[in-house]
Amino acid sequence: MTAQLIDGNALSRELRAQVAQRSTALKERGVTPGLAVIQVGENPASQVYVRNKVKACADAGLHSVLEHYPADLSEAALLERIAALNADASIHGILVQLPVPAHIDAQKVIAAIAPAKDVDGFHVVSAGALMTGMPGFLPCTPYGCMKMLESIGYELRGKHAVVIGRSNIVGKPMALLLLQKNATVTVCHSATRDLKAFTLQADVIVAAVGKRNVLTADMVKPGAVVLDVGMNRNDEGKLCGDVDFAGVKDVAGFITPVPGGVGPMTITMLLVNTLEAAERAASLK
Ligand code: NAP
């Protein structure tokens, strides 16, 4: 292996310790940061994510409430619940675990969350703030990727970054954050012709597709930084990313593993956003 590992678990420990410290300071001012997590239905992956988020809150000294509703909860009832949490002063962040069942409009649900409590950073107000360079909540996964680049002291100015994937929650905000740091950014997607021609030019590659082996060693410039957002299962049922880690680690300069890379950082940045929401609320009091 020639690449240096960017260890998302180690970096998360460091950042979560800072969250715990700031949370203690806030509690001394009479405010306990609080996150409400809403899950609708029994999606097994969601169940794991939600459990991990609630546990991470407890470990960092944040208050959290888990509301788990049956899959047949009506959209109106969910919107009503969100309205109540918007008005609840003990809750600073609201997260609705996606996907929601098909009869519920996810966009409507996200739009119902008060932007001041949008700790997932999915609301159009948050997206608009990112787009225009205004302060707002950053989506946790791209935010975590930026922290990983920061942790290795990587200077993005003038570098070529290639983002593979253009979802609203990962690819697009990732591209905007890289652009904000003065990288030249290329966004690739399913209609991109000759993906390899782009990735071979890249100093930084972020793979956010959801398919195994989207990025292989022959597609990576020696020394490039490779961030693997993907979460897939291999033939043995083990968690793996979009990157062929075994091959790419011998070409890249830095690489994130799966598991233990971007995944824990996503939860860490949720804690950071929740803390920040509580700090903002406290300063308004
Ligand atoms: P998504 O909404 O399904 O988006 C996937 C993107 O990949 C789309 O933009 C799609 O292009 C593009 N794509 C599909 N096939 C491609 C190909 N062969 N070449 C290039 N691009 C291709 O997924 P997402 O929500 O962004 O998530 C992506 C992955 O990250 C998933 O594995 C997800 O589980 C994982 N994830 C991980 C974390 C974490 O914390 N680690 C957080 C969020 C997501 P089109 O737009 O043209 O369809």
Summed up, the domain count is 2
List SSEs in N-to-C order.
Answer: EHEHEHEHHHEHEHEEEEHEH
CATH topology type of the largest domain: Rossmann fold
What is the CATH superfamily of the largest domain?
Answer: NAD(P)-binding Rossmann-like Domain
Principal-axes shape call: globular
Mean pLDDT: 97
Blueprint of the fold:
Blueprint: E1 4-5, H1 8-28, E2 34-40, H2 44-59, E3 63-69, H3 75-86, E4 93-96, H4 106-112, H5 124-132, H6 140-151, E5 160-164, H7 171-180, E6 184-188, H8 195-199, E7 204-207, E8 225-228, E9 232-233, E10 239-240, H9 245-248, E11 254-255, H10 262-284
Parallel strand pairs: 1-11, 2-3, 2-4, 5-6, 5-7, 7-8, 8-11
Antiparallel strand pairs: 9-10
Helix pairs in contact: 1-10, 2-10, 6-7, 6-10
The structure holds NADP nicotinamide-adenine-dinucleotide phosphate.
The site of NADP nicotinamide-adenine-dinucleotide phosphate has 26 residues, from helix 10.
